[in-house]
Amino acid sequence: MKEVETLWEEVRELSLGKSGRVERLESPPTPLRFLREFVSPNKPCLISNATLHWPALSSWSHDDYLSRALSNDVVSLHLTPNGRADALVPAPSTSSSSLCFASPYVHRLLFPEALRLILSCGNANSSGTVAYAQQQNDCFRSEYSALAADCEPHIPWASQALGCLPEAVNLWIGNHLSETSFHKDHYENLYAVVCGQKHFLLLPPTDVHRMYIRQYPAAHYSFSQDSGQLKLELDNPARNVPWCSVNPYPSPETKDAEISQFPLYFNGPKPLECTVKAGEILYLPSMWFHHVKQTPDSSGRTIAINYWYDMQFDIKYAYFNFLQSISYPSTCNLKLAGTECEDSGSDVCACLSKYAPVADVVKMSKDGEGE
To answer: 3-state secondary structure string, 242-269?
Structure first.
């Protein structure tokens, strides 16, 4: 499958050019330039000085302002033991090393208390939970509508280029433990950081085989009033979620095993690294794989707002669907970055919905959709 590896390199060159980095624009592009140079070729870019005119850039850095503006608003707070919501964790009630896809426990409460929990959970509190405001599903225009005047309802140059308004606008408030595992979304994503920094790892859709997408049993965290602890339970009725198997930051204890298990990722081309700072917008094209970590501001939190625009299900979608339908071994006997791997013969695409109807694919992408 030398041709597939050549495709990885060619797409990387087309997306990054000679710099090897995500292209940075010093100011927002015209709609025509954005459409021609980034949306049409499915190419990410980082836009500086994009939201400096938003009142949010100054007012949201003060907890008192946020608590006053949202004093009577009930919001959804996602709780996990470690800050990694919608991620793979050891399955409950099993002595094996099997994994499951765990969704967070969602707690509804007044915003001032939610913010207090986010900040107090920065080092994991006595209940062993980390809080992250990451409701998605258009939460900014519903739960946080009191803040609407502090930023734009959409990104004008992006809306004009894409020919539509965003389907959803989401607000994210977390601490240094908040992390989003590798995944992709069927949306054009305009991601604006307001406070702190977001650290993205990016891979183009053509690298699908390197993500080792497999079916995992779905599970969820519940909260026990008796113990005050989160408990992981498998969903009933049982269902499976296709999810990326790769953890790009393995612990020293598991690193060798992870590299051996996922050689196409660890021994192949490095993911693109991109840090988005306050006042900047990352254009994340549809179907790009991304992993997100964050660095909080001096107050201990990171705040971002993102705009999800519907993607066009055009010929590119058909190409990507065809590519992921190709059987590719989970390891290979070709030299990747000078490393030899043995061919195990297993098919990493066996669990993918190869030619599912568009509506079904979109529904699948929303199981654990992330930043």
So the answer is: EEECCCCCCCCCCHHHHHHHCHHHHCCC
Q: Is the pLDDT of residue 346 over 70?
A: no
User: Does 237 sit behind a cis peptide bond, omega within 30 degrees of 0 on the bond before it?
Assistant: yes
Q: Which residues contact 368 (CB under 8 A, 6 or more apart)?
A: 86, 101, 103, 183, 241, 243
- Residue whose C-alpha is closest to residue 200's, from 85, 324, 288: 288
The pTM for the full model equals 0.87
State the pLDDT at residue 367: 54
The terminus-to-terminus CA distance of the chain in angstroms comes to 32
Domain 2-365 carries which CATH code? 2.60.120.10
- Amino acid identity, position 157: W
Give the ranges where the chain is alpha helix by DSSP (H): 2-16, 31-34, 56-59, 63-69, 111-120, 156-162, 255-261, 263-266, 315-325, 358-365
Tokens of 245: 């198997």
The predicted structure's pLDDT at residue 316: 84
Contact (CB, 8 A) for 103 and 86: yes
Domain ranges of the chain: 2-365
Q: How far is CA 335 from CA 148, 191, 204, 339, in A?
A: 52, 36, 21, 5
Tokens 């001032």 belong to 112
Phi-psi region of 214 (alpha: psi -120 to 50; beta: other; left: phi over 0): beta
Q: Cβ–Cβ contacts within 10 Å for residue 6, how many?
A: 10
Are 170 and 306 a contacting pair, CB within 8 Å? Answer: yes
Strand blocks (E) in the chain: 23-25, 45-47, 74-80, 84-85, 87-90, 99-103, 105-110, 130-132, 168-174, 179-183, 187-195, 197-203, 213-223, 230-234, 240-244, 272-277, 281-284, 289-295, 302-310
Average pLDDT value for residue range 126-132: 79
Average pLDDT over residues 105-128: 82
Q: How far is CA 368 from the centre of its chain?
A: 9
> For residue 362, what pLDDT is reported?
40
Best CA proximity match to 286, nearest among 263, 307, 304: 307
